[in-house]
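note to self: dont lose this again. the chain is below, predicted strucutre after it. 208 aa total, dont forget to put it in the shared folder this time
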Amino acid sequence: MEMLTARGPAEVTLDAPADPAFLLALTHGSNGGVEAADLLAVREVALGLGGAVARVLQPFRLAGRRAPGPAAAQDEAWLEIVAAVRERFGDVPFVQGGRSNGARVACRTATEAGAVGVVALAFPLHPPGRPEKSRVDELRAARTEVVVVNGARDPFGVPDAADAAEVVVLEGERHDLNKRPETVGAAVEPWLRRWAARAAPGGTRRGD
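---
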């Protein structure tokens, strides 16, 4: 479905069971889209756990641009989108995430969006070859549980274990995380299962 924001139209692809245990919103990197292999792997895991998944094509990509523009404008549009999507599902646990630039957005906006957790795929810790330009403050800004999944050979660097609830480093993977995307899903599954379990009274996931 298309959704109008203050920064232009966005597109949301929604997969949802009748009574979802949680809602997961995912978005892409600066040059990619919502069909990225790692995003699809996480989507499949979330659906298998009874969650609803919204994959968001942000306004700048829908307009055909590769540069996301100012962070504040991107965050503004993201917050509009997730607020509208959350209205459809009521008071279920909300998790947000993305890959690369999308992971940055998810971390920066987690508190304002009311996310109980963040899935950060290929978090770009710094521009390639410029470790002095660290973006670790964005990762720390989430102020909620963040699971990071990065490739060991990522030229954008790998966050330190102390800067997230968990940092999973996949051997042989680079920034695109597309060599064995099923390992990305496997890394995220325990965290999504935890959030799914919080959906029902007493900590038992609906249907168990």
